Amino acid sequence: MNQMLQEAEVQKSQAEDSQVQDSQAQESRSPETPGRTPAPAHPRFAKPQRVAFVQSSWHRDVVEECRIAFLAEIAARHITNVDVFEVPGSFEIPLHAQILAKTRRYTAIVAAGLVVDGGIYRHEFVADTVIKALMDVQLRTEVPVFSAVLTPQQFHESAAHFEFFRKHFAIKGIEVAEACANTLLSLERLRGQVAAGIT
Description:
Residues 1-46 are annotated as: Disordered. By secondary structure, this protein is an alpha/beta fold.
């Protein structure tokens, strides 16, 4: 009799454990689980997209944070064909962007660099020149060009500043990936409408 009671209790305990495990598994699968936000569903492209990422090597350890964040975010937005190019400094980015755009291999080009005081040029001049040249490239070639070329007003060669700008470039990488993907989606729709004679 005692053995039957013990077996019944074991079976009851096992059933309760199984229910708890099922409930936990369901919660982990459920998108409405408190504290866990579901991953956003990004729209897919009708045609494959290929992006060129042109990065300056000046302060590479800071600028590469932009590239790392960009690659992760752009992949989440269904763009996995990204070719990375490195140039000496931001001043060299526009020419590379123009040559890449003229190949017609890329549906978009992204530029990343950090322009700081130093050398024979004022950093504001370099940054303005780079941004204007990148705008000229996209208007001449109709290949969208995105800029994460930053020029901080106050930049010091200190650990605190480097750490701040690493985090800042990571944020910029996500933002430029979002802008790139959304623009490419918009252009894909627009070109489809133009081809269909809707616009």
